[in-house]
């Protein structure tokens, strides 16, 4: 049977079990030109929370009653499509379910010989591309500049900080646990990391960024963004990647210091990785090269239990329980 | 005697008479290489309010006890400097006072034969350059796009909208009086103008911007910025020029819809005209050309009464009483 997790209600605040329903359907049968995909790994992303809301966004909302949208690595287990052979693996958006019939559109083959499969949801996938394009195309780092990245031990943040170091920046992370801070400094080479749960972020930033902040890669929004705004340099860039602190908030925190952008000729710029997909291949190749040379480290946190563990696994993101890319094994 | 208006206290909220003092000093005597300037026109700018605050900004705050900073057109009335002859006029920053001795540094000659002198504080001066660079270098207008400009009948806004029309944009202004709206539509050629004091801005924007908003040139900040954020298009640009609604606010209004920047891959970008001074001359020449061809209209509102009228004239800006560039005749 095909176990599916469907969105039944639009969550208010934190998503809860009653917002979802599990259904079991017969495993579908591929027709001519189609194939059957068995989900192997499901990507957990903070952006999923946004897809649950009924608002205009860069992707349409998940419809009520539909299988929850998710990036996936799937295995081809039956094929009537000459472009895909049984046993091959593909990246796609099969959603939070065990099986999907596909005609091959919008799928990308990935090889377990090149890298562990979950890495194609992380550093060598959408997550890595988000870090790569957000930092390099929006953040525009220059050697010697100071880069601050929040969500530093998260899937995107850890790549951003490492690419920042590769580009010669002074890199300061912000994370929510001592162990996460130690990890990004000791293992990933960040220059410093602030534990926002126990430190005064403003004071710690002044200490670790004596030359001010040139780039703030924002994964969290909220009060930390507001604090950073008071310490940006002239011509600073703030790539706006996410706002995980806000996704479940019923009342949003607005950046009251936004006029710092004006007096510093600085910019706050949103970006969506989907805008860059036509440039994805060389970016992935460059990151794969860094991985092989040991200049970039990837980390995935794999949760067992399959489709039925979707919600508790998603909640780990909002509770700050993951380090690196969070993936659910299906 | 040299009548001077000095900043004595840092205003809280709206500036008031007791924040300033008038002093009379003997007219200074130019030494070798110097000249005596008699102030003829004083520029009134919303940014002056920011200069009164003791905060790090793009210019240092006016020191308590100092003559209030202001852009000026002055006449050379005595000269020991071979580069400047008596009877010539210069643009500079002589401040809110009748006389200044200068060595000629940071002055720019202006000619009453080319344009009325107050225009060199407006369309052919810093104000015009602010509109020009903010729209063309930050706003990046393309023909067919929709440009919304707040403070539409103000010195900067009226130029922004006209340049927007020259570049083929659909231009919608926002202003605070029926007469101002009529002026920018009937005299300056804006496509529409919303009176934010009587109309529902969100509803009016939906009506006048059926294709969404590509550029919002923000002179006012506050709630209008927040409303515009809900109607921006993908890749929208928001040049952040000013926030006149906020300059006297003791509690700032923060844009709670800023995450619209994220989902629309849009940017909110501050700029300061001083960044562009090395490109000022060709810009002024281009605008002078448009003026001569009748493609651009300039408007100055001249207040009589000299230095002692500084504060009541400044207040006209915050009370929305000016149309076009507000200038005090000294």
Structural commentary:
The structure is a homodimer of 330-residue chains. With 330 residues, chain A is an alpha/beta fold. Chain A has 2 domains: 2-122 and 298-329, Medium-chain alcohol dehydrogenases, catalytic domain (Quinone Oxidoreductase, Chain A, domain 1); 126-274, NAD(P)-binding Rossmann-like Domain (Rossmann fold), CATH 3.40.50.720. Helix content of chain A is 25%, strand content 25%. The first copy, chain A, is built from 9 helices and 15 strands. In chain A, the strands form 3 sheets. In chain A, strands 3, 4, 5, 6, 7, 14 and 15 form a 7-stranded mixed sheet that branches. In chain A, strands 10-9-8-11-12-13 form a 6-stranded parallel sheet, sandwiched between helices. Chain A has a two-stranded antiparallel ribbon with strand order 1-2. In chain A, β14 (300-303), α9 and β15 (325-329) form a beta-alpha-beta unit. The first copy, chain A, is globular, with a radius of gyration of 20 Å. The model of chain A has no long low-confidence stretch (mean pLDDT 96). Chains A and B meet through α7 and β13 of A and α7 and β13 of B.
What's the quick description here?
With 330 residues, chain A is α/β, with parallel strands linked by helices. Chain A has helices spanning 47-51, 126-139, 155-166, 178-187, 201-208, 222-229, 260-263, 280-292, 310-318; strands at 2-7, 20-25, 35-43, 72-79, 89-92, 99-102, 108-110, 146-150, 170-175, 192-195, 213-217, 232-240, 267-270, 300-303, 325-329. The first copy, chain A, has two domains: 2-122 and 298-329, Medium-chain alcohol dehydrogenases, catalytic domain (Quinone Oxidoreductase, Chain A, domain 1, Alpha-Beta Complex), CATH 3.90.180.10; 126-274, 3-Layer(aba) Sandwich (Rossmann fold), CATH 3.40.50.720.
